[in-house]
Amino acid sequence: xALTGVRALQAWCKKYTTGYGQVEITNMTTSFRSxxxxxxxxxxxRPDLIEYDSLTEDNVESNNRLVCDEPKLRIVGVxxxxxxxxxxxxxxSFLHKFILS
Length: 101
Prior knowledge:
By secondary structure, the protein is mostly helical. It has helices at 5-17, 36-45, 60-67, 70-75, 80-100. The radius of gyration is 13 Å and the shape is globular.
């Protein structure tokens, strides 16, 4: 049976972040809070854009700022709608971490 929806997205993310330190995709919320999963995905396809080995799980704000760097996202071909969805996902992650926890 083929995966669909969120499960398919989660499987795709897990596939491309396997082997990246401090990243374990177990769900689509807490697995992305530190920003490392987003950075790992970008690094997987464009290692020249992010020095992944220099990142730490503790530096949440900086990691997420790297991911939201609009010029960097344009380089990897992320269009405006996808950037907005990415920012929405980050907002939900922060909301869950700082307000709902």
